[in-house]
Amino acid sequence: MKTLITLIFVLTIGVAAQAQDRTAEVKVETIEMTIVTSTTENKVEKEEKV
What we know:
By secondary structure, the protein is an all-alpha fold. 36% of the residues lie in helices and 0% in strands.
């Protein structure tokens, strides 16, 4: 009985170790970002009426 439990334990550990050996392929998608700047000119004119 002890031998049977030991074999099941060893097989379970072996299967768990093999399941973790798989390497996942990592896919990276690049995003291009640009900075857009705009300048505005504010003109203040002073009018004097007499």
